[in-house]
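Problem: given the chain below (148 residues), write out its structure.
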Amino acid sequence: MGQPNDKRRMTALWIGVLIGGVGIFILIKQLVIDSKSIEERLIESANEINKTCPVTTDSVIRLDNVVIHSNRTLQYNLTLMTIEKTNPNLEIIKNKLEANLISNIKSDSEMKIFRDNRVTLNYNYKDKDDAFVFNILITPDKYSVAKE
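Solution.
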């Protein structure tokens, strides 16, 4: 009975991940153009992305902001606008998102700058009530091409 809604939500999540690539594209474009250190370029790019935040990527995901941490870590703070923390499918959603994100980082030519500079990507997700839901941490060892 709930399968059409679940399928619709999963489809919306995947679309959100793909549309979220726009923010990554902006970040990557700025990283490639400048000759500053990777940390300086990450900070500048995050500041540019944050000027547009919060931005709704689709009917399910909103990018709230981007934060840079030490050790080349880029953190995306996102909200799953139609999901509640009590959703019994959270682990499935998390696992599918993580697999898709890792695959994208490994194969997308625009993600090469992250691979080459061994950037860690951290995705923090909140539910529609602003409660923390889950975190996806993608370290260089997870997306390294040599590991494939």
